[in-house]
Amino acid sequence: MFALRSARTLTPTGERPALVVIENGKIREVLPPDAALDCPVTDLGALALLPGLIDPHVHLNEPGRTHWEGFDTGTRAALAGGLTMLVDMPLNSSPVTTSVANFREKLAAAGCGYLHTNVGFWGGVVPGNLADIEPLIAAGVLGFKAFLTHSGIDDFPNATEADLRAVMPVLARHGLPLLVHCELSEDNAAHWARADVRSYQRYLASRPKRWEDDAIALMIRLCRETGCRTHIVHLSSADSLPQIAAAKAEGLPLTVETGQHYLFFSAEEIPDGATQYKCAPPIREAANRERLWEGLRTGLIDFVATDHSPAPPDLKQLTSGDFRTAWGGIASLQLALPVLWTAAQARGFGLPDVVRWLSENPSKLAGLAHRKGQIERGYDADLVVFDPEVVFTVDAAALFHRHPVSPYHGRELRGVVERTWLGGVAAWQRTNFINLNQGKPLLR
Fold this sequence. Notes:
The protein is built from twelve helices and 18 strands. It is of the alpha/beta class.
């Protein structure tokens, strides 16, 4: 048994001085800071003590595309950024997680390497795999992901409305969420005819807000009809906030996330040819960004997730700057907390808001709200020491994810993760990466 004392402990009732007692991997008590204890106490002073961060939207790409990322590098970057729990998407690994046999391959790959954080898994919904849904549930997936447009990977085709109508009642019976990439796309080959493929504004116009808004309207209708927990991933179009508000007011089981990059960057600042910024849906205008912040403030947007989706530099078309053919994905796991904190504190938000968006609410989507995401008695002792005042400049080459590509390179950010505990065991210090597992992965 040991304890951590912080003048800035982020508890469910807010930020306050506290003494957090840890025993057998769990939080035994949260006591006043001057409580007498017969065990070692580490005094963190004014450094903030946060619950471990949870990211339910990451692409670790293993097996099959480990040269894109992988469990070792991805979870190492996560832990260094204070993320103690990830949920891996059913793509872009090969095979994709759309059957029990494929899921077993993913588990085997995870078991062969290092996992530096806890990891759970989403299953996938694709045309023709209705019979695989309940076996995947029995095998332990936490929910399912579907695309309404081409995923970028041919072996994970987009689901149709008919596919979702068949699957969503099954998920509703089991109380599991369906996560949906919401874009109802149209053939836009003509959009690029004789166009400058290096133009970011041209890329932005190629994926209009209407695609998102129409797709979200469809998912709200299906949510209403089936009662299935429905989660909108990486919202970028603020124009959908009114229909999301109406759906939530109606009491529908609808939740929404956005991404750090949509809250930090704006389309106006992205240079032509800078394909490290390419993602789908795209980063939109500054006015749209501020409306997303308002959606977070009011609770219409439930939380923030990275959609960590790295690829080798050649697939990002960094040399040609071709937005039409570049892989769409942003690598940002290690920076999830400082990016959000930098932008949030500049708008008057506090650490309790950040904890709600990066710990408490993500735990609910993954079905972990009873054990993770809060500094509370009985919860897992996944804890992060954070210095919210330190300012640093991002060097992509110093990040732990596999490829040194990041749109945050050269940006000045505020806040540094100093230490991390995983299940009550010291896992990270800023000056010394501690390898916990010695080849034995931590699987949820």
